[in-house]
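User: structure tokens for this one?
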Amino acid sequence: MNNENSALKLGILSGAGAYIIWGLLPLYWKLLDHVPSEEVLAHRIIWSLVFVALLLLLMGKGKGFINEWKKILKQPRLIAGVTAAAVLITGNWYIYIWSVANERVVEASLGYYINPLVSVLLGVIFLKERLLKVQWVSVILAGVAVTILTAASGSFPYVALGLAFSFGLYGLTKKIVQVGALNGVALETLIMIPLAAGFLIIQHGLSSAVFYAGDTATFWLLAGAGAATAVPLLLFGAGAKRIPLSLMGFLQYVAPTMMLLLGIFLYGETFTAVHLAAYSIIWIALIMFTASRWVSYRKTRYSKKPVITGEEKTAVTAAKTH
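Assistant:
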């Protein structure tokens, strides 16, 4: 029992740590808002590959990565899937970095609030998964909230929906082409390396300006993007192994809540009564959605034949690829 309690505590700390880091990332990207978002993205790709490659070597998993790469190269379907995942996560990273640099943190938080609902909707459309009535109501409420924001502001919340759908489609792709978290990041960044390196060379030539060698602080911030990408992934992986899916579902709302608070109170972004109404609808939808998952988990746990629903599989796959 003590071992189980220790594992649960470690799992909660690891999972919470992952989502806290993801929630604090706007602070990190804000320190780099003097660097064009496209360049920050290119550096994130390069340094993520460097950091993850070092981790794989230190953890003795380099051979496993090479074997997985060889397996993928033999199957065109897997090549297409990993490439699609690389493009989707790169797009997601860019939208997020751009939103922070352009004072759209509040809208970015909306994207990650509605992402779980978008993920299960994509599961219904592409994987023929089934939702409970209460979960359908949650998805419809999210649509109502987005409509309210669009009508009130006169502009489409493309940042929020861009983040939600790029990450949702990424999770869907990862579900179809199953690759481990670290191997996945390594493969996806490896695929995008030529574009990232080519873009930086076009911008700066072959000079040391590519890595901001004359600005030590900026150089280390760009290099640290690799750790900022991989560390929360490792923490999430440790947490997901030790705590129930339903509890991890609760923890996933820590990150967008922190982003929302940072956007409002630290960066002074607009948050009107209309925003409050729309976000309240989102929160109600998420409470209903999460409660239904909790009930489903309890029934599954205490049934004679435990079965994880398709909706739960989609949700955890999306969470693993944050």
